[in-house]
Amino acid sequence: MFxxxxxxGEVDVVDTGLMSLAKVIExxxxxxxxxxxxxxxSEEKAAVLATLGERLKLPELARRFVGVAALNRRAGDLPSxxxxxxxxxxxxxxxxxxxxxxxxxISNEQTLQLESAVSKSLGRTVTVDVEVDPALIGxxxxxxxSRLVDASIRTKLNNLTNLMKGA
Length: 167
Description:
Blueprint: H1 2-8, H2 11-27, H3 29-36, H4 42-55, H5 60-71, H6 78-93, E1 96-102, H7 108-122, E2 126-132, E3 139-144, E4 147-152, H8 153-166
Parallel strand pairs: 1-2
Antiparallel strand pairs: 1-3, 3-4
């Protein structure tokens, strides 16, 4: 898929489209469950995704990819496929993707500030994807490649609990 997008010069457009589709799927628990369920036929899933693709104005290449994935019983894997495509696209652009897990939603301005700070720290351009995880209580976790920088309140409380048990 990435090679086709690269050949046609549509890497950024396909990346944006697939990520918007992934966000819709992940944001709707019912849709996500239906796409993963073996109870529904592949053709039905492909039809739902085709309609969704039209509404999201996905590029033709992305629509065909989504249709083929659905017909091959991979509709439930589309969010992870979109993330894999996004990582390849980021590498192609010379930047990296960083996942920031936060306790509550942050603004676009805060996301841009975070991107700037992480880019400056790493010495390369990064794009930050924000995930909300209320279980963190506060703070954040940054996943940079295979490294995890954990500055969450939950982890600090767990460390204190373990320290007190050992005393």
